[in-house]
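Long-time lurker, first post. I've been practising inverse folding by hand and with some scripts of my own, and I keep getting stuck on stretches where the structure tokens seem ambiguous. Below is the full token string for one chain I'm working on. Before anyone asks, I'm not after the true native sequence, just a reasonable design that respects the backbone. If someone could post their per-position residues I'd love to compare against what I wrote down in my notebook.
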């Protein structure tokens, strides 16, 4: 344990030579003082009687002085040893402090080196991140240009294909109406195939054109106040012929007193038609499809349900991933109508979702705001919200235990 530090004044007083000088000076002073006192007290009469005692007294004083000097020497030696011990302790303490300072200096130098190395590594990482950011920005610009070129190309090609295809459809309709009696059964069947496939290609081209316009930001909404009942009845009438070819039936279930709302009539019809076509495609021969509409809060909910084969969990994930993507996957033609329907719903400020059970059927739903507002946020969700289907509108034959997809 380190001793307490000694002040310079105390160190000077505790020095052995200082102690010796002080003690000898005190002894001499006492000796001289004693002699002076004796001489001053002596009278001439007493000098004669004390003369024999002067020499012994002097000898005793000298002996006392020498004894005191010897005692002082012993004491000073002791103090010198104590002083040396304390001095050695101070030296060791200072040595330890110096060693500790050296270790701290070395540690500080090592830490400084590590800090410099970390700073260099950080600078390299920042340079790398900046370079990657520049590359990413460049690639993003290239991707945007590519997407714009793709959309423009699809739009132009769709427009170029639409004109001759319209002629093919028109002439096939004309031949079916005017020359049906002079044609054989085989020719009539071929004309029907030409007409049907031509109409399918025309709808596909129109969908591509709509998607291109949406991606290029050229799509405009033509809002008008319309009766939902009349709109749904018109869609049901339009699809009855197509469903009749497969002996399928379309049932409509509408809530009483559905309000008139502002919407783009043409696009809402396309949404419902795409849902019904999708339901017909995955339904059995002679199956039933149900089209429902009801009000819930500030939204109007639409539902198209079938009792077809349904989708497996893996298929549901794939459909959700395609519909949630930022762009249309043109390779998946089967879901092109659904992807376009999702864009239409978003342009209205609504949301779209679906749920399905393998071997039971599927239900595709969307909501539209009862009152259109430009500030209404567009939802990116295509999964079913927890309270999307009210108790008065069951999930069209789907099992109650079916787990609907959560909000994204």
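-- Answer (accepted) --
I ran through it position by position. Result:
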């Amino acid at each position: 344990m380190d001793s307490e530090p000694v002040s310079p004044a105390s160190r000077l007083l505790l020095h052995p030579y200082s102690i010796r000088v002080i003690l000898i000076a005190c002894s001499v002073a006492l000796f001289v003082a004693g002699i002076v006192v004796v001489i001053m007290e002596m009278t001439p009469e007493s000098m004669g009687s004390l003369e024999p005692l002067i020499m012994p007294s002097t000898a005793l004083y000298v002996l006392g002085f020498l004894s005191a000097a010897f005692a002082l020497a012993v004491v000073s030696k002791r103090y010198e040893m104590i002083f040396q011990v304390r001095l050695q302790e101070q030296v060791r303490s200072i040595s330890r402090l110096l060693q500790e300072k050296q270790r701290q200096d070395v540690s500080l130098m090592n830490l400084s080196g590590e800090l410099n190395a970390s700073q260099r590594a950080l600078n390299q990482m920042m340079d790398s991140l900046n370079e990657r950011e520049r590359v990413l920005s460049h690639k993003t610009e290239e991707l945007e240009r590519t997407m714009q070129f793709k959309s423009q190309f699809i739009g132009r090609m769709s427009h170029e294909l639409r004109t001759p295809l319209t002629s093919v459809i028109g002439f096939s309709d004309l031949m079916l109406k005017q020359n049906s009696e002079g044609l054989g059964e085989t020719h009539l069947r071929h004309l029907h195939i030409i007409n049907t496939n031509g109409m399918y290609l025309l709808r596909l081209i129109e969908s591509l054109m709509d998607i291109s316009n949406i991606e290029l930001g050229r799509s405009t909404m033509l809002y008008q106040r319309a009766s939902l009942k009349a709109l749904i009845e018109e869609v049901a009438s339009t699809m009855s012929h197509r469903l009749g070819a497969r002996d399928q039936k379309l049932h409509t279930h509408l809530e009483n007193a559905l309000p008139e709302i502002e919407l783009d009539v043409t696009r809402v019809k396309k949404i419902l038609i795409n849902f019904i076509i999708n339901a017909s495609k995955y339904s059995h021969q002679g199956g039933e499809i149900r089209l429902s509409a009801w009000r819930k809060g500030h939204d109007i909910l639409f539902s198209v349900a079938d009792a077809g084969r349904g989708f497996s969990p893996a298929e549901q994930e794939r459909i959700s991933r395609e519909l949630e993507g930022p762009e249309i996957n043109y390779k998946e033609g089967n879901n092109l109508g659904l992807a376009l329907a999702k864009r239409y719903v978003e342009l209205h400020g609504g949301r779209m979702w679906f749920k399905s059970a393998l071997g039971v059927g599927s239900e595709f739903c969307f909501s539209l705001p009862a009152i259109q507002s430009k500030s209404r946020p567009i939802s990116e969700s295509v999964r079913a919200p927890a309270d999307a289907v009210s108790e008065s509108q069951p999930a069209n034959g789907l099992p109650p235990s079916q787990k609907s997809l959560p909000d994204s």
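A couple of notes from the structure itself: Strands lie at 224-227, 249-254, 260-263, 288-296, 299-306, 351-357, 361-369. The CA atoms of residues 223 and 263 lie 5 Å apart. Happy to go over any region you disagree with.
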